[in-house]
Amino acid sequence: MAIITLTTDFGEKDYFAGAVKGAIYSELPEVKIVDISHSISPFNIPEAAYIIRNAYSSFPKGTIHIIGIDSELNPENKHIAVKLDDHYFICANNGIMSMICQEIAPEKIVEINIHDKIESSFPVLDVFVKVACHVARGGTLEVIGKVINHIKPIINIIPQVNYDNTQIIGNVIYIDNYGNVVSNIKQKFFTEVQKGRGYTIHARNHKFNIIYKKYSDIVNFEIPEERRQDEGRGLVVFNASRYLEIAIFKSNGNTVGSASTLMGLKPMDTVTVNFID
Amino acid sequence: MAIITLTTDFGEKDYFAGAVKGAIYSELPEVKIVDISHSISPFNIPEAAYIIRNAYSSFPKGTIHIIGIDSELNPENKHIAVKLDDHYFICANNGIMSMICQEIAPEKIVEINIHDKIESSFPVLDVFVKVACHVARGGTLEVIGKVINHIKPIINIIPQVNYDNTQIIGNVIYIDNYGNVVSNIKQKFFTEVQKGRGYTIHARNHKFNIIYKKYSDIVNFEIPEERRQDEGRGLVVFNASRYLEIAIFKSNGNTVGSASTLMGLKPMDTVTVNFID
Amino acid sequence: MAIITLTTDFGEKDYFAGAVKGAIYSELPEVKIVDISHSISPFNIPEAAYIIRNAYSSFPKGTIHIIGIDSELNPENKHIAVKLDDHYFICANNGIMSMICQEIAPEKIVEINIHDKIESSFPVLDVFVKVACHVARGGTLEVIGKVINHIKPIINIIPQVNYDNTQIIGNVIYIDNYGNVVSNIKQKFFTEVQKGRGYTIHARNHKFNIIYKKYSDIVNFEIPEERRQDEGRGLVVFNASRYLEIAIFKSNGNTVGSASTLMGLKPMDTVTVNFID
């Protein structure tokens, strides 16, 4: 039996996520439901796009992903179901899918049209659950929607390169639980533009010359532990999802501080890479 | 096999919820456990009542709901198990069940009396789990308690109507994850008192003349998107649970603000509806 | 089929926990995954040790516990798998297991050595999941690591007794969801040192002479409810895990305040017990 995942901005407190799970089990007692996150910032589409893009591919092929962000149906916000990379995604056509679709071409996109039978002020519960259970039972997307070819884009997910290829201009797209600052500059893209050159990375007034492979590479283990002062130092890594990330070693927003708080970096801020011949 | 849900004020960090799930699986390896919420404000009974009332009915008949709020056994706080609407609820007799029981008559209420065998400082783990597993195995309530006829009420769950039916005086009962402000005025009750008259809704110094069907009804889609200024505007809707709610369109407490923060509204504040002939 | 639990500092928002669950279900569709906590404070090893120690034993024998705190592999932070009390624990050798191992001798400890095949910046996903699934399938620890005899200790988990046995000097090890302050003084240890003597408990400038059996024992139920003033009063109990805890009756950090906020107590602060002949 299939897995249905949930990614929403419902928060940890409200009854919404609980009600959605109850509705799914009422239709399909044997399905597995997995929470990816209910703590997306309210209406924050780039954040949701980053999280679902990095979580989905760990799940088995055939998994169905419900994304409940800004999902109220209106003339400019239709509901879609997407088949891509042998996974299914059910969400509003508000830009959430554009980060994944930019990297992997979708096999099929339908605009959901079962709404004439469902008048709802809670579309995740009343519409997305029905679509997810339909797919979990082996139903095709054409039965619940009409095929479309384009989805709504979101801005700032692709970094820019200047005219003579000496600079990448990227943006902060996500601040993680450790306060680390994730840019939209992927390792593959960086390497293609770099062509072996040296580089400096700039974010506000901070400057870095090394990209580490992992966080603790900043530590010199030949110095005795009691004389080291690495906790709280800034560094750059390609993170577990292969995005360029500005981090603080063993950061903690409540104690030593985090990259976001210490360096004053927030979503949409510019991160620049200058290449040196 | 039955579903057991958990609604508590244990928070997301502590070991309490994990231990309870471990204990349930130790007794019943095949049961499904669903978290409704562990983020109820500590000891906040009206909040728990609102959440369980709106979540439970999405689950299949026969589901068993453990509610772990203010559950320490003492002479004034007994444990009860309630069968209602073909669902089972296990909680302290502290008012949590009164919101549901006011709308649907319980089939059976028992005061749990297996405590002489269990001395506990963690009754959800030691008592509620045992009762839930007993019910999940098909056991009857009479085996674990003695039948009673009344439960403890909570105040302020019912709005008042003035002597000449020109005014409803309600209260804020819940602030949701989006900072939206939920009153205790249900759509059905509103319509019965309204009898087709016009109305104004007052909360502190804020005034509204329209109740929308959904949040985005505030948007005039004929105005081009770049010229609209709807985000952050206040509005009133009947929410997904059919309660009158004061909301901010696309609210976010950390950016544009929320109804609660912008209008200074908090639980127990008065929400008034004045009808106009 | 076995249960795999997760205890991490990933937080509620990030994709990390979701990705880990997806990876487990991809390997073992029939396993049960239970979240113990993802809200450990970042890199807070004593907190993680307290939570896993109190949660694990409610689970059935054979359960596999993944602990994802400070788990990046480096020369001083190896990965281990421990069999203890018929449970399995997979974590970094950073002190997390020392609280449990101090009370119950481990049956077997191995240092995981499958890393030459796995280069990873997300070891919980890439290494711990593989080890957990190996164990869930009935595999032995020797296959994935080499047996070792010692693990790294953490400090301040054991309270001290002065030279003439008149004083226990303990520390705050945890602040729970209610703001209650948990010390490292266990009831059994207290009773052994006490030998029936009277006592006073000191924390900062606060002093207590009674240890209650449960929180509501502070209430005198003979006084009518409307005249009582117990909410917000400080008290000491042995908590559900049998640790000496300084609490506030019906505390709530956002309203009446909590023991931590009202008394200014935080992790590592001293809690002293003076015995009186």
> What is the beta-strand fraction of chain A?
25-35%
Low-confidence stretches of chain A: none
| Rg measurement of chain A, Å | 21 Å
Q: What is the CATH H-level superfamily of the largest domain in chain A?
A: S-adenosyl-l-methionine hydroxide adenosyltransferase, N-terminal
Oligomer: homotrimer
Helix-and-strand structural type of chain A? alpha+beta
Tell me how many strands of chain A there are: 15
What is the 3D form of chain A? elongated
- Greatest interface by residues involved: A-B, 32 and 42 residues
The helix content of chain A, as a percent range, equals 10-25%
Task: Report the top-level CATH class of the largest domain in chain A.
Answer: Alpha Beta
Distance between the termini of chain A: 55 Å
By CATH, the architecture of the largest domain in chain A is named: 3-Layer(aba) Sandwich
CATH topology of the largest domain in chain A: Rossmann fold
